[in-house]
Design a protein that fits this description.
Elements (H helix, E strand, L loop, with lengths): L2 H5 L3 E4 L4 H11 L5 E4 L16 H16 L2 E11 L5 E2 L12 H11 L7 E11 L5 E12 L15 E3 L12 H7 L1 H14 L2
Parallel strand pairs: 1-2, 1-3
Antiparallel strand pairs: 3-4, 3-5, 5-6, 6-7
Helix pairs in contact: 5-6
The protein binds inosinic acid.
C-alpha cells in the first residue's frame, strides 16, 4: 500500500479546546481523508500543565498527554507573541502574561513595557506538534514578523491582534484587517502549511 493511501482514513485528535483552531484543522485535513475529532469529542479531559521552556516543548507536552490516553494520531500547538525589547516576552507565557487573566490587560502590559522604547520589533510564533499513532512526533514552526503598535486598534481576531502590525499589513494592526488576511499570512497559517506539505509527501 502506498504511503498516501495509508494516510487516508486516519483518525487525528486535535489537542485543543479552542473551537476556532479545531475548525481550522478540520477544514484542512478532512479533504485529505482524515477523520478529525476534538479532544472533547474523544472524551478526553487532559489539560496538561505547560511546563516547557519553548513553544516546541509545550506543543510536544500537549500532544503526548493526549496520545498517552488515546494512542492515536494527535495534533497539538503552542503559540505566542515575542517582543524583542521585552527579552522575547510574553513568549510562552502569552496566555497568562504577568498573571493577568484579561486579554486587554495583557495587551496594555506589553504597551506599557515598551513605553519610550525605540525598538518595537516583535514576532508571533506557532509550533505544531504532529504525533503519529506509534508516538513518533514531528514539529512545524511558523513565524510572523512585525512590530508592536503604539496603541490598540481593530476589533477582529483575538489576543494580541489589536497591537500587532505584521510586516505585510501595510501598517495596519492584525485586528484591523479582515480575518482572511490572517488565514493566509499568520504564524499559524505558515505552520499549518508546513504540516500539510509533510502530510502530502507521506
Ligand atoms: P495558545 O497557543 O492557544 O496557548 O495561545 C497562546 C496565547 O498567545 C493566546 O492566548 C494569545 O494571547 C497569544 N496568541 C497566539 N496566537 C495569536 C494570534 O494569532 N493572535 C493574537 N494572539 C495570539
Amino acid at each position: 500500500m502506498k504511503n498516501t493511501e495509508k494516510m487516508r482514513n486516519m483518525k487525528v485528535i486535535i489537542a485543543s479546546g479552542n473551537a476556532g483552531k479545531i475548525k481550522e484543522y478540520r477544514d484542512i485535513l478532512e479533504p485529505l481523508g482524515w477523520e478529525v475529532i476534538s479532544r472533547h469529542e474523544a472524551g478526553i479531559d487532559a489539560d496538561p500543565e505547560e511546563t516547557g521552556t519553548t513553544f516546541e516543548e509545550n506543543a510536544l507536552i500537549k500532544a503526548r498527554a493526549i496520545h498517552d490516553l488515546a494512542h492515536t494520531c494527535v495534533i497539538a500547538d503552542d503559540s505566542g507573541l515575542q517582543v524583542k525589547a521585552l527579552g522575547n516576552e510574553p513568549g510562552i507565557y502569552s496566555a497568562r502574561y504577568k498573571g493577568l487573566t484579561d486579554e486587554h490587560a495583557r495587551r496594555m502590559a506589553v504597551l506599557q513595557g515598551l513605553e519610550g522604547a525605540a525598538d518595537r520589533e516583535a514576532q508571533f510564533v506557532c509550533c505544531i506538534c504532529f504525533m503519529e499513532e506509534n508516538g513518533a512526533h514531528h514539529l512545524f514552526t511558523g513565524i510572523w514578523n512585525g512590530t508592536v503598535a503604539m496603541k490598540e486598534e481593530g476589533e477582529n481576531g483575538f489576543g494580541y491582534d489589536p497591537i500587532f502590525i505584521s510586516e505585510d499589513s501595510g501598517g495596519k494592526t492584525t485586528a484591523s484587517l479582515p480575518i482572511t488576511f490572517k488565514e493566509q499570512y499568520s504564524h499559524r497559517a505558515k505552520a499549518v502549511r508546513l504540516l500539510l506539505e509533510y502530510l502530502q509527501n507521506q
